[in-house]
Design brief:
By secondary structure, this protein is of the alpha/beta class. The chain has a single domain, classed as Trna Endonuclease, Chain: A, domain 1 (3-Layer(aba) Sandwich), CATH 3.40.1350. It has helices at 2-21, 48-60, 107-120, 135-140, 151-160, and strands at 65-71, 76-83, 90-97, 104-105, 124-129, 132-133, 146-149. The strands form two sheets. The protein has a five-stranded mixed sheet, sandwiched between helices. Strand 1 (65-71) and strand 2 form a beta hairpin. The longest helix has 20 residues, at 2-21. It is elongated, with a radius of gyration of 22 Å.
Length: 171
């Protein structure tokens, strides 16, 4: 008889815990960006070459010197940069993703980039996308030497640095 009492008590506690579990709030949604018309979308959010020049221009605002870049595929640009600042300087790696699948960069892509940054011995990594990051991806880089810059942050920085408008690459 005591065993039935214990089972009933455990079942009752389980139901109460499930009830409280449903009261937790979901993670805060990421800020989204919307354009009134397709003509309002800056060229560098859709064109690979314009995106490359805007990413380089963006990182140069942080006193990073461009070394070289290579397109890994149609959507991913890898950029090597150096910071010559004494003591805190070093090499930086950037991964710029234009038009990610589903407009979201997942944790697996961020983990791969984090491993690359550590494997190359870079001081920091910067992952820029014209989309957004999954919550798992955001949680993955806590206390890691990687910065995630989604489309909202990217455009905000460009406006802050007064380089929002696309200007053709002189080279």
């Amino acid at each position: 008889m005591a065993i039935f009492g214990i089972i009933f008590f455990a079942f009752f506690i389980g139901i109460i815990l499930i009830f409280f579990l449903k009261k937790t709030s979901p993670p805060a949604p990421q800020e989204q960006i919307h354009f009134d018309s397709p003509s309002d979308i800056p060229v560098y959010l859709a064109d690979r070459d314009a995106f490359k020049s805007k990413c380089v221009e963006f990182m140069e605002k942080f006193n990073l010197e461009y070394v070289h870049s290579v397109w890994a595929d149609d959507h991913e640009l890898e950029i090597a940069m150096n910071d010559e600042t004494p003591v805190v300087g070093g090499s930086y790696i950037a991964l710029c993703i234009i038009d990610p699948p589903g407009k979201t960069v997942n944790a697996m892509k961020v983990k791969g980039f984090l491993d690359t940054v550590k494997g190359e011995g870079a001081s920091r990594g910067i992952l820029i996308t014209t989309g957004y990051f999954s919550n798992e991806a955001i949680n993955l880089i806590e206390d890691e030497p990687v910065e995630l810059v989604n489309v909202v942050s990217f455009l905000s920085y460009l406006k802050k640095f007064d380089i929002y408008e696309y200007s053709p690459d002189p080279s």
